[in-house]
């Protein structure tokens, strides 16, 4: 396997790990929204809420990271190892929960405190990061 294939494989593994985490967070936030605010009647309503409702705003940062990785994978010029390293570093920093932080870090910490599925998804993401470190 050449360097371009290894880089692509690392980025795909990162993307897939982040998507699994994102799905778990979406499910968790949806459950909280439906418990505390209102039932979500349809997939289109849920999409609208994801894009516009402040309750889901914190998840957009993770969504944007996945989009950046997708764009990097789809670029005409293949990503290099330094591109993968940068995106992995940025992703690792993003999914670092913080009790005293703000924005995504704080909301992620709170999600981990209330939902064991988020804790398991976080653990899975840490395993993805560990695997990415060993494929350099």
Q: What gyration radius follows from the Cα positions, in whole Å?
A: 16 Å
Give the overall pLDDT as a whole number: 95
Q: Helix count?
A: 6
**Residue share in helices?**
over 70%
Beta fraction: under 5%
Let me know the largest β-sheet.
none
Q: How many DSSP-defined strands?
A: 0
What overall geometry do the principal axes of the alpha carbons give? Answer: globular
> Helices and strands, in N-to-C order?
HHHHHH
- What distance lies between the first and last C-alpha atoms, to the nearest angstrom? 12 Å
Structural class: mainly alpha
Task: Give the low-pLDDT segments.
Answer: none
What do these coordinates show?
By secondary structure, this protein is mainly α. The chain is 76% helix and 0% strand. Helix 1 (3-36) packs antiparallel against helix 6. The radius of gyration is 16 Å and the shape is globular.
Short account of what is shown:
The two termini are 12 Å apart. The protein is built from six helices and no strands. With 136 residues, it is mainly alpha-helical.
Pick out its properties.
136 residues; globular; mainly alpha; 76% helix
Summarize the helices and strands and which ones pair or pack:
Elements: H1 3-36, H2 43-52, H3 60-74, H4 81-94, H5 103-114, H6 116-134
């Amino acid at each position: 396997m050449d360097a371009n294939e290894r880089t692509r494989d690392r980025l795909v593994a990162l993307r897939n790990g982040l998507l699994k985490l994102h799905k778990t967070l979406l499910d968790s936030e949806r459950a909280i929204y439906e418990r505390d605010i209102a039932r979500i009647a349809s997939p289109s309503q849920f999409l609208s809420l994801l894009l516009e409702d402040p309750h889901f705003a914190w998840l957009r940062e993770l969504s944007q990271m996945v989009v950046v990785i997708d764009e990097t994978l789809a670029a005409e010029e293949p990503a290099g190892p330094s591109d993968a390293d940068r995106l992995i570093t940025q992703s690792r920093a993003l999914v670092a929960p913080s009790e005293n932080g703000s924005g995504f870090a704080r909301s992620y910490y709170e999600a981990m405190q209330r939902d064991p599925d988020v804790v398991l998804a976080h653990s899975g993401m840490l395993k993805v990061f560990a695997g990415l470190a060993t494929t350099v």
